[in-house]
């Protein structure tokens, strides 16, 4: 039996030998090959392999248990889903995802383009780096990949085949639990609440029955609204970026769901960056520069995505009834409302849930972190409860600014 004929979890040496065997597009210099694990996510093992001749590749393997909890087991088939989705997204939005070299169904691993000349966006923004092209690029990616996989555009049978192919129940269950349920009741006793905010969280989240009703509505919509092939986890830790390009990866949570889930995740994670800059940048001019950029990104992500989706719809619509006057505006309005709601859901779950964000947890000063988290929670509640009343990027920004002003 060959070494890779049955599944096992690879170590550094295994991954190096694996790349030598599987990534055949390169004439590797075996003697100078090196390997380093670079993954910091919750689900997978990610290795960078390179040699002295300038060749490099990423090997990504799905483990059988979550790295944040050995008690949580999920299907390794997610790596197949990710590989196939990146290939599809590469066709819909060329240049916005890494190239896939191969997928191995036995080892539940794939090889892909090395993006070492890019940074993980969250890490870079924790250093308060500004990316002027980001809003333009991420909105093109979302408009093309989301609208391009809807019933508005695709043959309905083709769309249903994609929906069946990427049903992804195990990872959806993680979202249903960690985003739509546990942050509002701590029913699994897994929430990570910052102790100075414990009473605030109880009052604003655990005891707010009106909020629970709205989240229940949103949870059912997430599970039932097979609108588009969404990324499913589109935060700044799933984006490689440099001054020139934006590259999206990690679509293993992909399934057919509401488009606003992706857009709202992007908006919320820019808000986290804003909160970090507001708390951590001491010099007023530098703080104003970074936070001002983040504010403009919030506005632009909302407005540009809606504008580009409208243009895509107009050019590519195929469904006869979807051409009915007035329907496009109605349809886009539902996406915008969902975007607002998910902005709130993501803000809450990353503040008090199982998977906190470094944007908040690295704020060193207790009072500043307490305030930043409260800004997120208060803004989030308005994004959820008032989602139908938010019609523009400026409306989204005002919610954030209002929350900050009252604390």
Automatic annotation (TrEMBL):
Enumerate the InterPro entries for this protein. Answer: Aminoglycoside_PTrfase (IPR002575), Kinase-like_dom_sf (IPR011009), Methylthioribose_kinase (IPR009212)
The enzyme's E.C. designation: 2.7.1.100
Where does the Aminoglycoside phosphotransferase domain start and stop, copy by copy?
A: 35-281
**Is Nucleotide-binding a UniProt keyword of this protein?**
yes
- What highest taxon heads this organism's lineage? Bacteria
Keyword flag Transferase: yes
Q: Which UniProt keywords apply?
A: ATP-binding, Kinase, Nucleotide-binding, Transferase
Q: Which GO molecular-function terms appear in the entry?
A: ATP binding; S-methyl-5-thioribose kinase activity
The family database entries (Pfam families) matched by this protein are listed as: APH (PF01636)
What NCBIfam families does this protein map onto?
MTRK
| Subunit structure as annotated in this protein's UniProt entry | Homodimer.
What is stated as this protein's family in its record? Belongs to the methylthioribose kinase family.
Please report the name of this protein according to its UniProt entry.
S-methyl-5-thioribose kinase
- UniProt lists the gene as mtnK
